[in-house]
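Most newcomers find our protein records easier to grasp once they have seen one. Sequence and backbone structure share a record, each on its own labelled line. To make this concrete, we reproduce a full record directly below:
***
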Amino acid sequence: MTDVMPRKLPYLHREKTRHGTITWYVRIGHGPRVRLRAAPNSPEFMEQYRAAINGDVPSPASVKPSGDPRTLAWLVDQWRKSSDWGSKANATRRQRENLLHHVLEKSGRVPFRAVRKEHIVEGRERRQATPFAANNFIKTMRALFRWAVEAKFLDEDPTEGVTFIKTKTDGFLAWTVDDVERFRARWPLGTRERLALEVLLNTGLRRGDAVRLGRQHVRDGVATLRAEKTGVELFIPILPALAEALKHGPKGDLTFICGANGRPMVKESFGTWFKNACKAAKVAGSSHGLRKLAATMVADRGGSEHELQALFGWQTGDQSAVYTRNANKRRLAIKAAMRLASGS
């Protein structure tokens, strides 16, 4: 809706919601407030206004006219102005922007009230060849329409009941200890590649946080920084292997991990560069695979779910339980095998 009416109408009031949305309502004296939901100056708006003045509360059909001209692109623009959007991490917003670009390119002019569950399902099915992209599509659409319902633009969420595509992979390939040793042999102390590996392995940070880590975060041997993705505050001791790598360098002035020019790297370019370093070392892995190895090592050495959550910045026990459950199964299997051996 527009912020300003071209002419003053009796008993018509303007109000801004906590989400920054401009709403219009009719109130005569101390009587009830009647919300007008059509676009200002449209025939539907004036029809609702006259009905409210006459004491007729608009029916649901007139509140949501089928001719509502507001589009999906308009709704997304309102979402971008909201606190819901602003509260998300930069990485989350970037991921959503990339997906929304393609959605709006195809369907930006579609009235957002016309979007139904079957349209969301259709969008998922178009992406079924890339299940992670399909599931990210659902997550983004769900976040958009849940906000739209809360902001009173819609009464029902068209993503309700839409399921994710089941994936047949555990995601990023986890490194093995042999992979680490192969990488270290190819990239000795004193190389940028080796320093990057030690930062990732000895902190368990996501790449977006690893490329931000620098001496300014370290006090009394412990690095403190807030996770880019979740906003959780992380406390990470500088372990001996990392301290040794930092001593040999090369490191940047602002960040430990740096480009050839000594300047900080963004996570996207770092991911490509590190992937190439892995290929040169004949390691079939990525930066995130080192985070999975670090979590596995902590769990295998008896780390609890709460310890894993604190170190890796997970906000629920879902992810930490995966590692502790696997570690417990391994210990139980070894214990059971020892019982077999003692009986033979």
Confidence is low (pLDDT under 50) at residues 57-67.
